[in-house]
Amino acid sequence: MWFAEPIGAWLKDGSAPTLSPTSIASLSSRISSITGRECERCGGAFASGEPHFRVDHTLWHQECFKCAQCFRDLDGEVYFRFDDRIYCLHDFERLYAPICQRCKSPVLNGHVIKAATGSYHAECFSCDGCLRDLDEGVWVSDGLILCFDCKEAKRQNPEYICVQCKHIIEPDELLKLHHDCYHAYHFECTTCEQTLTSTGRRLNEKWYCERCYDLQCPSCYECKRAIDPDQERSVAAMGHHYHVEHFRCARCLVPFHGKPFFVNRELPYCQKDYIENFGERCFVCSRGLTGESVRIFNKGWCKECYACHCCHRRLKPKDKVLEENMQPVCKKCMEKKMFQTMLKERQKRIAVEEKRKT
């Protein structure tokens, strides 16, 4: 940190500089030394005897000696040099000054101490546990800087230290955020603005008390409790939300866990129970039909039971068939005389039925 003093200003206005008086002999040598030199800011030359500012080994015109950010005149002001530029106190604090992690103020005077947890004034660099100086070494634990004694005590008797106030947290006051520990009373509920307790919860980057948190979360349709998206898995089905373990078959009560389910009268069933209780049954073996089955002639067949009524050859779902007594007959049997006979009998039967209707 420096105070700006114009060189040779006393020759111009007849008054000696107030900060660092300069002798005539030394001033003359300094004024003569500007011959052939250029201004650090504008690159222009200096006139003989022209008042100017000297910063380290650089020279500045009086009108060029301004803050690089706000262009404020720094004549007689406190200034800082950073990356070959000069700044007023305000802009240096705002742009570049390190912030002390202990007192939260800019580090401007003296030495700045850099640690794993941030920057510190020399007088602020102390143990977060006992506030003693750290002359004998520094240990970092859970974002805290500790002396050896406090480090050992923390290892043997773990305690939670509030990141915000650095005080010990009792178990019934603890809230955790991104692996950091806080006293719950440092936060308020986003909805009701009550001071939080250790039951406070976080949702979408906002804090809520337990009651308001439950109102923000979907409720399980089965148990009616709120589903915590941070700690509980859930599933959306049939227009409702469920805890994973509560979305289960209405008959055997086994959770589905991603397996197919079937709905009857707004209740979910596993495949086995749905088929046994509500499903269509195979015309041949009477077993319940699943998705892999054949439905034709108002009847259902298992894939294993779907066969020609005449030759009993197993059929594929896409095979061409003809109906005989509401059962499938294959193409080969169609071409046989036996089939022609059956066809005539069928036509006679249809004719008899039509006469009865009339």
UniProtKB/TrEMBL annotation:
GO process terms (BP): cell-cell adhesion; cell-cell junction organization; positive regulation of integrin-mediated signaling pathway; positive regulation of substrate adhesion-dependent cell spreading
Cross-referenced PROSITE patterns: LIM_DOMAIN_1 (PS00478), LIM_DOMAIN_2 (PS50023)
Gene3D superfamilies per record: Cysteine Rich Protein (2.10.110.10)
LIM zinc-binding domain span: 37-98, 99-157, 218-280
Entry keyword set: LIM domain, Metal-binding, Zinc
Cellular component GO terms, alphabetical: cell-cell junction; cytoplasm; focal adhesion
GO molecular function annotation: metal ion binding
A Pfam family per the record: LIM
Source taxon at top rank: Eukaryota
Record InterPro entries: PINCH-1-4-like, Znf_LIM
Xref: PANTHER family: LIM DOMAIN-CONTAINING PROTEIN, LIM DOMAIN-CONTAINING PROTEIN PIN-2
Official protein name in the record: LIM zinc-binding domain-containing protein
